[in-house]
Each structure stands twice: as C-alpha cells, then as structure tokens.
Design goal:
The complex is a heterodimer of chains A (about 230) and B (about 475).
Chain A: E1 12-16, H1 20-32, E2 36-40, H2 43-52, E3 57-61, H3 69-79, E4 84-88, H4 93-101, E5 106-109, H5 114-125, E6 137-139, E7 142-145, E8 150-153, E9 156-157, H6 162-173, H7 181-189, H8 197-211, E10 221-224, E11 228-231
Parallel strand pairs in A: 1-2, 1-3, 3-4, 4-5
Antiparallel strand pairs in A: 6-7, 7-8, 8-9, 10-11
Helix pairs in contact in A: 2-3, 6-7, 6-8, 7-8
Chain B: H1 11-15, H2 34-90, H3 96-102, E1 110-115, E2 118-121, H4 133-140, E3 145-151, E4 154-162, E5 169-175, H5 177-227, H6 244-291, H7 298-328, E6 337-340, H8 341-348, E7 357-359, E8 366-369, H9 371-388, E9 392-400, E10 403-410, H10 417-420, H11 441-454, E11 458-463, E12 469-476
Parallel strand pairs in B: 7-9
Antiparallel strand pairs in B: 1-2, 1-5, 3-4, 4-5, 6-8, 9-10, 10-12, 11-12
Helix pairs in contact in B: 2-5, 6-7, 7-11, 8-9, 9-11
The chains are: A alpha/beta (about 230), B alpha+beta (about 475).
C-alpha cells in the first residue's frame, strides 16, 4: 500500500456524530493519529460549519437526529468534493448502498478500530497520482491530466470528487488494461483484502454519469464482465 | 443443516476419504407399516381371497363340465360299439379279432373284448392289466362302468359294458390327452390370475390411496419445511374438508411460532445494535490507550491487554448475534467476488497458526463467494478448534470435480454421532464433551452453517482417525478462472 504520511499541515477531519462519548473518543483517537478534528453533533451543525470553512475529510454517522446521514451527505455533495466516510451501525445492503448512492466515498461499520479508520482517511487523502502516471491521457472525448488534477470533457472541466478523480487516474494510468475491483479497492481506497466491491461499482456508476454521454451505454469507462473495469484504450 | 445447502456430486469422496474419517453409521429402526401400508395390505389380502374363490369355482364348474361332456360322448360311442360287437358275436363265423378290427375307432383308443374267458385286444401294448380291478368286476357283474385312469402313456378313460352272455364284456380305453391339455391350460390361467390379483390389489390400492393421503402428505411437507427453518410454510385450508381443521390449527401454530421467532430475532438485533455504540467507544478508547502504552506500568499494560482481549471477544459476540438475527429477519446480503481460495484461507487463519494451513492437490482454485462471510466461517471454525477442540491441527484446502473443500481439523474428543445433526443449531452445546461449553460457541457454528449455505456450499463434521473432529466446508469452484 502506498500510504503517504501527511507532512507539514495536519489534515482536518470533521466528525459528525450525535453520541457524545463516541464523538469524543473518535476525536481523541484521530487527534492522536495526527489529524486536526472538529466535532459536530447534528447534520444541521455540520452543514453550517461547511458554509464557513472546508475540511479534508468528513466522517458522517448515518443515524443522526433530524436530517439523517444520507440526507446530509447529498447536501454536502452539492457543494463539495471532499471525501465523506459514512459510519453505519450495520453492514446491511440497505445502509451501505444508500450511503454510497448518496455520494459517500467509503464506509466503516461500528464498532470500528481507530487505526483502521485513520488508514481509510489517509487512503482517501493520498495524492492520486503516483510515479509512472503520464501527464496527459486522452480517452474518447476525455482529456485527463493527473498531475494537474484536471479532467476535460470536450474541452470543458468535469467536476469530480477526489475519489472519482483518483479512480479515473488509476484507470488512465494503463489505458486498455483491465483492473480488477480488488486492485482498484487497494489502489484507490487502501483496502488490503476485505474491501467491499460495491464501493467500486457505486463510484464507477457515479463517474459514468459525469464523463459518459450515455451512462447506460458507457464508451469510456468500460465493464469487463467478471474481471473488472478498463478505460477505453 | 440449512435449507440452501446443495448436494455436491463427488463431494462425498472428498468429505470422507478412505481411512481418514469414520464412516457414519445409519441406524434404522423397524417401523410399523403405517396406515397406508396396512390399508394396502388389507386390499391385497382381500383380492387374494376373492380371486382364490372365483378361481376355485371356475375350475370346478369348467373342468366338471368338460370332463362330463367328453365322458358322455365316449360312453355313447362305447355303447354303439358294444351293440355292434353283440350283433357280430351272434352271427356265425366271425372271429373276435375280426370283429374288433371292424369297429369304428377314435385315434389312440383301444378295444378289449372278453368272451368265454378269452381276452381279445386291438393293441399289443395294452392288455387287460390296465383295467382297474373294481371296474372289471363291476362290468362282469353286469354293471356298465367308466373310470378315468392315469397310465404311463397319459390319462385314459376306460368304459366297460357287459355283453348279454354272463362273463363277457366289451371294454374301450380312450386317450384323454387333449382334454388333459385343455384342463392344464385352464388351471395355469387360473393360478396366474389368482396370484396376480393381490399384486393388482397392491398397485390399485396405492393408486387409489394416493389422493386420499395427499392431504396428509401436504401436512407432513409443510411441517418438515417449517422444521427446516422455512417460517412461512403454511397449509392451504381450502380443498379437502377433512383437512380444514388440521390446516387451520397448523397455520395458527405456525403463525404464532413465526411471530415469536421474528420478535426474538428483532429483539436480538435491537440489543446487539444498541451494544454497538458503547462497543465503538470501548474499542476506540483502547486504541487511544494503546498509543500511550509505553508510559504505562507493567501491571497497567497487562490490564490493558486483558481488557483488549475481552472487548474483542465481546465485539465478536455482538457481531455474531447481529449476523444471526439479520439472517432470521431475512435481510442477509451477499456480496459475491471471485477470489483465490488459498489466499482467503490464509487471511482467515491467525498468523501464529499459519503453519497448520495445508494446500493439498487442487488447492489453487477460485471461488465466487462473499469474502467476509467465508472468512468469518473459516475463522469461526478455527476459533472453535482452538477453544473447544483441544487445538487446531490442520486447515486443509483441496478441490475435486468442481467442488472445493476447506477442512478444519482439531485434536479434541470429536463429535458424537448424535450431536452431529444439531451441532450447527443455534444454541447447540455439546454435552459432556466440553465442546461448546464456552460462551458463543453455539452461535459460532450455527453462523458457519448459515454463511456457507448462503454461498451455495455445505458444512459437515466427521471424525479424524486417532481422535479429533474435522469440520469441512464444501463450495462450488468458480468455472471461468480469471
């Protein structure tokens, strides 16, 4: 795994959790892992904080009083591409899929281990481009510049989240080569083995709505049945 | 075992290789015939008796009729011949042999004439010894007589008529081969019919009883489906009026049980769900402690380790309980991925036990599974072997004929035959063996069964030679290897 330490400025994390004890201890744990943590008790408080400033990562509990986590997640997505990690209490299809559909980048299930959580956060914050990634990749009507963090579709910039951009860059690094979902989980999300492949599928779906002319019949980001995904060579 | 399990062709060979596991003995007690059997048997007996009566009556009347018809005809013919002999004897100059030669005769019949103590016969093979003594004396006493006899040549009818003179008589012996053949055919036919009737009764009985027993079959099917875990199994109360009462009471009972199981499941789910929040705090707090471990005194460090171990156990318990209640509530989700089996097995086995993993021939296969579920199933089995099976001895991975197997073996006392069926039940706890006496063991193995069933596989338990249990998970292999 290519984990980049975050030198210099500590990364900021917003923890949205209504349970005081969990909020405090997560805050403590992440602080000891070197993050700068801000706490919010409700979805409303979280959205209010976001109008004033931005955060590198948002840790969002699903079960919030008032506006629930899914709802808050969708609102955040309208204004920010910052990575969102959903905290679910269950691994039920429903919560996980709903969270991913709402725009979450990743999810953790309670009870989670603080080390694992910080590993998830670091993976999402890692600079998308590694060595060996070309400066510019052309795929169909897309123009990807991994180094500059820019994707142009027919010359117009496409607003991608950090994770979507990372996913596209991984595919763009080797156009035409099929990357398995496991490999993408490892490279983009930092999972070693037990990653949930639904995360990849959900992000591929969202990526297609942004880069494909017809997301139902993709021509740039292609599915290879039973094997994985590839960028149109 | 769970309902979704598949029977794997050829897996039996994998599961019980010769010499490595004891063959399971199946004890079968003699069961009484049952209602269906008794009714069918009664029908067969009735059919046998009826057919014997009818057959006997047919035999008596038909054979009697045929025999008397034939006898009448032959007696009449003998009468005519006797008349001719009488006339011949009264005319002078005709010898007895000449007289007999002139008589019209049926093929195979022989005439004997006794005149003046002299016997004349038309056949060299047949002499007067053939004539039964009783018949001869009756005829010579002036009494016409006939009798059926059996000779070396076959059945014969002897007819004797006295002549006018005292001490002389005419006898004729007729072959009855044709009649005998007819009677034999008749008797064979009757025997066949008589024996076939009860068989027909059996078949007919079964056929006729089927619709009668169908409602009972439906009750049995519904009850066993319910017992196998299908809580929605119900009987259709319409149709057979005789079944309505049973159907209604079965459905009412099933309804209550289902409601209760669902309430229990929901309760378990709610409880374990509620436990997750404090658990999260505890687990994370331990992580924070861990960071300052170096600053703790030795006893503080030991206390921290103990706490960590207990919290982990607690966490596993809550997860297992949640998993079970989710499966009960029917909301289990399966995320399928194609993975290399040896890699997954290695990840499921703790680092200190890695040397027990054995990759047998065919181990390098791909399976399409929910990684999390299979990993939990295997690690639960390993955990079970370590905690209740006297220690893990081997985790053997192999495959054959499209089925992969992961076998977890321990050095414990093994599992009694009687325990094997229920060891995968939810709260099954071994009796007297020590297995399952620890907390969570009952949940662990039942979860294994559920996980594996959801993946289209099967889990079974056998004994290892020299003691110990062998839990084997069989799964279909993935065909198109990526």
């Amino acid at each position: 795994m290519r984990v980049c330490k975050t030198p210099g400025v500590p990364r900021s994390v917003l923890v949205v959790e209504d349970d005081l004890r969990i909020r405090r201890i997560v805050s403590l744990a992440l602080t000891s892992e070197g993050f700068r943590v801000t706490e919010a008790e409700t979805g409303e408080e979280c959205l209010a904080l976001l109008t004033a400033r931005s955060f590198d990562v948002i840790l969002l509990d699903v079960m919030l009083p008032g506006r629930d986590g899914f709802d808050v997640c969708r609102s955040i997505r309208h204004q920010s591409g910052a990575p969102i990690i959903m905290v679910t209490a269950r691994t039920d299809s429903h919560d996980v899929v709903a969270g991913l559909e709402a725009g979450a980048d990743d999810y953790v299930t309670k009870p989670f281990v603080a080390k694992e959580l910080s590993a998830r956060i670091r993976a999402l914050l890692r600079r998308a481009s590694g060595s060996g990634v070309p400066d510019r990749v052309q795929a169909g009507n897309l123009e990807i510049s991994p180094q500059n963090g820019v994707v142009l579709r027919d010359g117009a910039p496409v607003p991608l989240t950090r994770t979507e951009f990372g996913l596209l860059c991984e595919l763009a690094a080797t156009p035409g080569r099929v990357l398995s979902r496991e490999l993408l989980l490892e490279r983009v999300w930092g999972y070693d083995y037990f990653g949930d492949s639904r995360i990849v599928d959900a992000h591929i779906r969202r990526l297609r709505t942004k880069v494909e002319d017809d997301p139902a019949h993709p021509r740039v980001v292609l599915t290879v049945r039973g094997m994985g995904y590839q960028l149109q060579p | 075992m769970t309902t979704a399990s598949r029977t794997a062709p050829g897996v039996g060979a994998i599961r019980e290789p010769p010499g490595s596991a004891s063959v399971r003995r199946v004890r079968r007690s003699l069961t009484p015939l049952g209602l269906r059997g008794r009714v069918t048997l009664a029908l067969a007996v009735v059919a046998l008796v009826l057919s014997a009566l009818v057959g006997g009556a047919v035999w008596i009347s038909v054979s009697g009729f045929l025999i008397s018809k034939r006898t009448q005809a032959l007696v009449a013919q003998t009468g005519a011949n006797t008349e001719q002999v009488r006339r011949g004897l009264s005319s002078p100059g005709v010898s007895a042999p000449q007289l007999l030669a002139q008589l019209p005769r049926e093929i195979g019949s022989t005439s004997l004439l006794l005149v003046d103590d002299t016997w004349t016969t038309t056949s060299l093979q047949v002499n007067r010894d053939v004539l039964p003594a009783g018949l001869r004396s009756a005829v010579l006493a002036g009494q016409p007589a006939h009798q059926r006899i059996r000779t070396d040549q076959g059945p014969r009818l002897v007819v004797g008529l006295p002549l006018a003179e005292k001490g002389s008589a005419y006898f004729e012996i007729f072959a009855l081969d044709e009649l005998d053949q007819t009677l034999r055919t008749l008797s064979t036919t009757l025997w066949v019919v008589m024996l076939a009737a009860p068989l027909g009764g059996l078949v007919l009985g079964r056929w006729a009883l089927r619709p009668a027993f169908r409602p009972l079959d439906r009750v049995a099917a519904a009850a066993s489906a319910f017992a196998a875990g299908d809580l929605t199994a119900r009987l259709d109360p319409r149709g057979d009026p005789g079944l309505v009462a049973i159907a209604n009471s079965f459905n009412a009972t099933a309804e209550k049980l289902e409601g209760r199981v669902r309430r229990d499941a929901k309760f378990a789910a709610d409880v374990s769900h509620e436990l997750r929040s404090p658990l999260t705090t505890m687990v994370t707090a331990l992580d924070v402690f861990e960071a300052s471990r170096a600053r703790l005194a030795a006893d503080g460090r030991e206390a921290l380790d103990l706490l960590r171990a207990e919290v982990r156990r607690f966490e596993h318990l809550v997860e297992d309980l949640l998993e079970i209640s989710r499966a009960d509530a029917g909301s289990a989700d399966v995320v399928l991925d194609v993975v290399a089996l040896p890699e997954l097995v290695r990840l499921a086995v703790p680092a200190r036990l890695q040397d027990r993993v054995v990759l047998a021939p065919g181990a390098e296969v791909w399976v399409e599974v929910d990684k999390r579920r299979l990993e939990r199933a295997i690690s639960n089995l390993v955990d079970n072997a370590e905690r209740h099976g006297g220690g893990l001895t081997a985790v053997v991975v192999r495959s054959r004929d499209g089925w992969a197997e992961v076998a977890v073996e321990d050095r414990g006392p093994g599992i009694d035959d009687s325990e094997r069926e229920r060891i995968f039940d939810r709260f099954a706890r071994g009796r007297g063996t020590g297995r399952g006496s620890g907390a969570g063991a009952g949940l662990g193995l039942s979860l294994v069964a559920r996980h594996v069933a959801l993946l289209g596989g099967e889990v079974s338990v056998t004994d290892v030679d020299g003691g110990g249990a062998r839990f084997a998970v069989t799964l279909p292999t993935y065909r198109d290897e990526p």
